[in-house]
Amino acid sequence: MSDSTVPDEASTSEKLSIESTKVALKQRASGSQDNNETPNKKEREEHSRVVAAHYNHLEEKGLEERYNSPIFYMRNFNNWVKSVLIQEYTDKIRDKDYGRRIRVLDICCGKGGDLSKWQKARVDRVIFADIAEVSVQQCKKRYEDLQRRCGRLFTAEFIAADCTKDTLRDKYTDPSINFDLVSCQFGFHYCFESLAQARRMLSNISECLKPDGHFFGTLPDAYEIVSRAQKSPDWSFGNRIFNIKLLFDPKDGYPIFGGKYDFNLEGVVNCPEFLVNFDVLEKLALEYGLELVYKARFSDFFKDHSGKYKQLLQRIKCFESYPAPPGQKLMGEESEYEHAKLFLESKDKIDHDRIGTMSQCEWEVATIYMAFAFKKFKGTMDANGKTVYKKPATISK
Ligand SMILES: C[S@@+](CC[C@H](N)C(=O)[O-])C[C@H]1O[C@@H](n2cnc3c(N)ncnc32)[C@H](O)[C@@H]1O
User: Fold this and answer.
1) Which residue has the higher pLDDT, 380 or 127?
2) Are residues 338 and 269 in the same domain?
3) Do 286 and 347 fall within a single domain?
4) Which of 36, 85, 332, 383 is deepest in the core (most CB within 10 A)?
5) C-beta of 164 in contact with ligand 1 (< 6 A)
6) Which residue has a Cα nearest atom 1 of ligand 1?
7) Which atom of ligand 1 is found nearest the CA of 165?
8) The pLDDT value given to residue 150
9) Residue 142 CA, ligand 1 centroid: distance in Å
10) 221 CB within 6 A, ligand 1
């Protein structure tokens, strides 16, 4: 197997619907930023508890269970995206200043799914923070195990905190720490429950980030979710491995904050999440000195990076072989591999008797997500000694 292919991009009608969704979301975004549809304080506390309890109770899966999971390849693909982001943004630092000590905040770190990625990127210090206490303990334990196994490892700190409500700086051992990078993987959308929570999250992200430092991450793409949901009478969509249902009626408009939906993914996530209106995020981030420098749906991210990071795609098994090798079974039904079949039929059989791919069902979940990166610019002090950020005319990526 020498090559890979994935199911087709959104059809033109889907793209049009994404465009009209953008317009709808933009129209809402030009109104007031917070609104009376956002959940009240009691509901917000309830959500935080539900989210923390959900992640605290997620069991760690053994290797065999992970291998047999119907989202095995999609999870590996998600890890590929995270690895590429980490590699790209640590490389940017080293391209400018090779010997620099790299300090990182991994916000919404979970059980430390990115520990070994930080190790491979040879960073020097990582602060891990998450609302779910049990996950933070597991993250610390995994760090200690890794340290025993590999000897030299970055130094670390572990903080259990609601990053949308608490001030993280108050909890650092050294509150004067400056980060080169802040990473938020698959967790930022929880702060879009309310304007106040989005602000606190952005403040935590930006406060200790150095000028020229990057904040990057991954999150569900609201435009993608809304455009797919719009096609169904009950605002839900999915397939055999996932289901998303909007928990508000879009006929009444899209709330900018508190746009709640349920995301049910084979034992991985099943708690309320919130749509992130990216136009609003982009504007709000500027107030915290963060300018958007990169944004791509996962399908485009794959196109942008699969050439440079092809070996990594193969090493961490992001794709299965189609047709299945003798004695092995495909992850999905044969009908979920039409794209791979067509690809092979269109190629010279001598070069391509087998292709690396993902089932249509897994790809439909993978392409819900997007990757993004912001760059911090310098602020100035106002008369009250408060740092204010004014967007520079140009910013290099
Ligand atoms: C899908 S997991 C991602 C974990 C990790 N970043 C990864 O990529 O493996 C989302 C994480 O966000 C965390 N989270 C949700 N709301 C949070 C909040 N308000 N403050 C801090 N962490 C939060 C959850 O506890 C969970 O660990």
Assistant:
1) 127
2) no
3) no
4) 85
5) yes
6) 186
7) 19
8) 86
9) 17
10) no
Q: What is the pLDDT of residue 55?
A: 84
**Domain total for the chain?**
2
Dihedral of the alpha carbons of 143, 144, 150, 152, in degrees to the nearest 10: 80
**Ligand 1 within 6 A of CB of 357:** no
* Distance in angstroms (rounded) separating the CA atoms of residues 99 and 114: 23
| Total-model pTM | 0.90
Task: Specify whether the CB–CB gap between 214 and 89 falls below 8 A.
Answer: yes
- Bridge partners for 372 per DSSP: 217, 295
In terms of domains, do 165 and 280 share one?
yes
pLDDT at site 18: 42
Determine which residue's CA is closest to atom 26 belonging to ligand 1. Answer: 110
* Mean pLDDT for the chain overall: 88
Are 77 and 178 found together in one domain? yes
In the predicted structure, residue 2 carries a pLDDT above the cut 60:
no
Task: Kindly state if the Cβ of 84 falls inside 6 Å of ligand 1.
Answer: no
pLDDT at 395: 62
CA distances from 378 to 208, 219, 270 (A): 12, 26, 39
Query: How far is it, in rounded angstroms, from Cα 359 to Cα 335?
Result: 9
Task: Tell whether residue 130 is among the known ligand binding residues.
Answer: yes
Question: Does ligand 1 lie within 6 Å of residue 289's CB atom?
Answer: no
Q: Are residues 130 and 165 in the same domain?
A: yes
Any idea what the CATH number is for the domain that residue 174 is in?
A: 3.40.50.150
Domain extent, residue 348, equals 320-357
Q: Per-residue pLDDT tens for 193-217?
A: 999 999 999 999 999 999 999 999 9
Q: Contact at 8 Å (CB) between 199 and 284?
A: yes
